[in-house]
Amino acid sequence: MRNTKRYPVEKSNSLWQIYKTVSFFKVMKNFIIISIARFMPFLSVKNWLYRTFLKMKVGKETAFALMVMPDTMFPEKISVGNNTIIGYNTTILAHEYLIKEYRIGEVKIGNNVLIGANTTILPGVEIGDNAIISAASLVHKNVEPDTFVGGNPMQLIYTKDELERYNRN
Length: 169
Fold this sequence. Notes:
The protein is an alpha/beta fold.
């Protein structure tokens, strides 16, 4: 299960109460920085923008591909380990607004992780070291280290041991 904190709301749906949750100016600043970073061709500059202005934890030699979209409201709740690749047009969410509540949760991505293009990562998810996530996946629960997962809904495809046996044959 995802590790999120739930905040019930009354009256209208939770998105109508967005600026009670997070400052408008924080969202605008984050949106501008993310918009610049999405098209930034220099990985070191992109990582610097994320670390400096969004307070994301980004490991050494981590690569965010073109058009990656980190959470605009709570990017500080995203951490990514060393030598990880986040594929083209991936979305990393640390919040979700629902009808009667909103939820906020940290996203922790380990070291040496490969995340395929067009993947969506939901809040409160932890992705273990050396995991591989296939393109166009919905990461709605934790991913164990050394596994290959994918799909919507996301399912286990291979464990590290199964991959090693397959590669030996």
